[in-house]
Each structure stands twice: as C-alpha cells, then as structure tokens.
Amino acid sequence: MEKQFINPASMVKPTGYAHGVVTPGGRLLFLAGQPGLDANGNVASPGDIVAQCAQAYANLKTVIEAAGGAVTDVVKLTIYVTDKAAYKVNLKSIGTAYRNAFGKHFPAMTLVEIKSLFDDDALVEIDGYAVIGESPANHANLR
Questions:
Q1: What does residue 139 show for φ and ψ, rounded to 5 degrees?
Q2: pTM of the model
Q3: Collapsing DSSP states into helix, strand and coil, what is residue 83?
Q4: Contact at 8 Å (CB) between 57 and 102?
Q5: Which domains does the chain have, with CATH numbers?
Q6: How far apart are CA 19 and CA 21, in angstroms?
Q7: pLDDT digits (tens, 9 = 90+) for 45-66
C-alpha cells in the first residue's frame, strides 16, 4: 500500500498541503525542528524569512536522505514562524523555496506563529515526520 493523501470533497480544497496522510508500514523518522541554520550553525540571512525557509527545507531534506529516505516520505510538517504577516507576504517565494527542496510533494502541514525561537535571529523553524519504506536501498546512509 502506498501513502494515501486524504482530502475529503466536503472540506476546502487544500493548496500546498494535504488534510491528512495514511501511511503503510515502514520506519518512522522524527524530524527535529530545523531553523535556517547553515553548516556552521549560523542563521542564514538574518531578517530574510525566505532564505531561512529555504535553508530549513534544505536541512530537512539532508536529514531525510541521510536516513535513507526521500522528501516524498514526509507525511507531516509543522512550520513555526515569529511573524505570520511576513510569512504570508512572502508566501509565493516561500512556496518556490519549498518546491526547490520537496518538489510537488505536499504532506499535511501546520503553520504556527510563536513569540520567538531558540536562535535570536531565527524567523522560522520546521519539524515533521517521515515514513521511510523498508527497501534495502533505504539503509545505505544509516550509521
């Protein structure tokens, strides 16, 4: 059984996300919150929510692939932002950054506005879940 995206006709049609995802067996990967930190631990482009989203999506993709998965294995993302208005104003560019990392794979998503994040310059942090299938190829990057 493949992942099944649940978008009931009686609900608003989702754009850029799914209302729900049913997953088959596999390994559950819990993705820690990823702010837009570069490889040196610095916030990418302080003040630029689009650049930070792009870095956070790239970080998530790196973790998923290191676990032997693909971005299409992601079933849920939660996006935490310190400024919902800035996120909405930049939604088109943030969508482009998302598609650059995840393609046209749209899992269940939630956006939450919060007061602040651990890194003072961070404007966004994204966490989530992926279900990675049990094929031998999925174990290549495990340590």
A1: -105, 0
A2: 0.84
A3: coil
A4: yes
A5: 4-8+33-139 (3.30.1330.40)
A6: 7
A7: 999 999 999 999 999 999 999 9
